[in-house]
Amino acid sequence: MRVPVLVDLKKIEFQEKPKPEVRSGDALVKVEYCGICGSDVHGYSGKITMQPGTVMGHECSGVIAEVGQDVQNVRPGDRVWVKPFAQCGECYWCQKGHFTRCMKGFERAVGLTPRYDGAFAEYILVRYPKEMLFNLPSGVSFEEGALIEPLAVSLHGVNRSRFKLGDRVVVVGAGMIGLGVVQFLKLGGAGKVIVLEISSSRSRIARELGADVVLDPISEGEKLKDRILDLTDGTGADIVFECSGVASGLKNTINYVGSGGQIILVGLHPKELPFDFWTLLHREVEIKGSLGYHDEFNCVIDFFEKKKINAKSYISNVISLADLEEKGFKRLLSSQDMIKIIVRP
User: Fold this and answer.
1) What is the pLDDT of residue 276?
2) pLDDT per residue as tens digits for the range 140-159
3) CA 230 to CA 228: how far, in whole Å?
4) d(CA 99, CA 131)
5) I need a surface site. Which of 169, 175, 222, 265 has the fewest CB within 10 A?
6) What is the span of the domain harbouring residue 19?
């Protein structure tokens, strides 16, 4: 099978690889859809380091094609979605139930290193099926299955916060993750959701998903802080979710949050960024990171089954595997209007 391999910075090369061989304990999944994650784009563009030789793709759904001996939780023909990493179940963090922090989890992740090929392919080999493969209910489409992983990231961010009914919240960035945060906040009974987004297309979708107010940080300029204060009765937001991954977005979160409030970091940022830590201390603001998810995907599946989430709002385009670089990576890098592009091999 021909698979797209990252061979250099901003360079994908299709190479011939044999169909993966299934051994004892393995499962082979025929990929139906795989979403292009922001981390895939960052790896392609060099914003984060990704080794040459990597076959990316980790937001996928598909059908079990073959299983090896000792695989009990799935069988050929099952509709599944793939959790991209396998927790060890034995380390300090796994014993506490914090699987995202597993000390071996990312070593076993698909689509992040040449060690385990990802799902931008006709087939993906899953070496830890018990931890990584989950049945997709008949009422959930394969397209929706490709959105389970990123929406679980959004829901985990909300769960990491102190969010409660009636809270006034600012969401910075209305990409895939930010829009998911908006939708879960509204489903949870947020009092007011204010979204900051420069793209008119993404702003429109944020409103469709329930945002009460959408502001363009560029057009608002220096008035933005005062606008948010006016919208929150002069106190600032109870919680700010930073989902843009843009340095200025993170730096300015301190201007939007109220005293005693929270800033939740969901977007990916460079290691070193300037930040007003004096104000953080003086106003007793909590800043908290959010990475991946624990078991939020079960809730996401339930929301899909109950038709509380509309996948069409998130999917900007469906492309073929052959178009991954031109209509996928390059388009996501050049356009601020795209949300989720999903790939069908």
Assistant:
1) 86
2) 999 999 999 999 999 999 99
3) 5
4) 11
5) 222
6) 2-147+314-344
d(CA 266, CA 154): 8
The confidence band for 24, taking pLDDT boundaries of 50, 70 and 90, is very high
E strand or H helix at 148: helix 148-160
Q: Which long-range contacts (CB under 8 A, 24 or more apart) does 47-52 make?
A: 47/268, 47/270, 48/268, 50/6, 50/112, 50/113, 51/6, 51/113, 51/114, 52/6, 52/7, 52/8, 52/114
Residues 23 and 50 in one domain: yes
26/6 Cα distance (integer angstroms): 25
- Measured at the CA of 336, the angle between CA 335 and CA 341, to 5 degrees, comes to 70
Q: What is the DSSP string of 126-147?
A: ES-HHHHEEEPPTTS-HHHHTT
Looking at the structure, tell me whether residues 321 and 231 fall in a common domain: no
At 310, the amino acid letter reads N
| Spatial contact of 113 and 105, defined as CB atoms under 8 Å apart | no
Burial of 176 (0-12, 13-18, 19+ CB in 10 A): buried
Task: Mark whether 64 and 118 lie in a shared domain.
Answer: yes
- 306 belongs to a structural domain: no
Instruction: Provide the mean pLDDT of the chain.
Output: 94
Dist CA 261 CA 279 (whole Å):
12
pLDDT class of 271 with cuts at 50, 70, 90: low
- CATH number, domain of 173, equals 3.40.50.720
Average pLDDT on 106-125 reads: 95
In a 13 Å sphere around the CA of 142, the CA atoms on its Cβ side amount to 18
- Please tell me the distance from the alpha carbon of residue 15 to that of residue 211, in angstroms, as a whole number: 44
Residues 96 and 213 in one domain: no
